[in-house]
Design a protein that fits this description.
Blueprint lengths: L5 H10 L10 E2 L5 E3 L2 H7 L13 H5 L2 E3 L5 E3 L7 E7 L4 H20 L4 E7 L4 H8 L5 E2 L5 H10 L7 E6 L5 E3 L2 H7 L7
Parallel strand pairs: 5-6, 6-7
Antiparallel strand pairs: 1-2, 3-4, 5-8, 8-9
Length: 195
């Protein structure tokens, strides 16, 4: 685009929600957006193996296995038909450690009041596996495997996680967001009456 075409640049920046430069938007041959985060896609895949960098679907990002409270592997099929809370958190995060007990209380009430309808998956930002295991031991729900950083990264991007703690409620079957800011909902309704 010639530098003199500032009006077109402004229209494109608005259309693709450009907040800073450099920004790389990847389009298909029909002009349909593949990704508005081509810069990160290239950084994560400098060899271009995943070109043209289609973002993973919700199901691909969520994956096919989790770690249960007892450390046993739990298949993703256990989430079918449920509301799932994706809990982005870490042991080192003070606000996370403050919120986790409240979330555990609401989780336990939901398991009693709505059996088989609700699950939480811990998406860890811990720096080492020992911290992850220690923190997960305080939680009554599932977790992504610590070593699966790609899934954590994909879910963080998909749900635009820019800080923790963050709790997002989704339909496990479709990935449709039910509540993007479920932490506030939990804090406002610790008894889970509006679940």
């Amino acid at each position: 685009l010639p530098y003199s075409e500032r009006d077109i640049k402004a229209v494109l920046s608005k259309k693709y929600k450009v907040n800073g430069i450099p920004t790389l938007v990847v389009l298909d041959s029909r002009g349909k957006t593949i990704t508005t985060d081509g810069r990160t896609a290239i950084s994560d895949d400098p060899s271009g193996e995943k070109f043209p960098w289609f973002p993973p679907t919700f199901a691909e990002s969520l994956g096919d296995r989790f770690i249960g409270k007892d450390g046993a592997e739990v298949p993703a099929s256990e989430l079918r038909g449920k509301v799932v809370g994706l809990y982005f958190s870490a042991h080192w995060c003070g606000p996370c450690r403050h919120f986790t007990p409240t979330l555990a209380e609401v989780y336990n009430k939901a398991q009693t009041n709505f059996p088989g309808q609700f699950e939480i998956v811990f998406v860890s930002s811990d720096e080492d596996e020992a911290s992850f295991k220690d923190y997960h031991s305080e939680m009554p729900w599932l977790a992504l495997p610590f070593e699966d950083k790609e899934r954590k990264q994909n879910l963080s991007r998909l749900f635009e996680v820019s800080g923790i703690p963050k709790l997002v409620f989704v339909n496990a079957d479709t990935g449709k967001v039910i509540n993007q800011n479920a932490r506030s909902a939990i804090n406002a309704d610790p008894e889970g009456k509006n679940f």
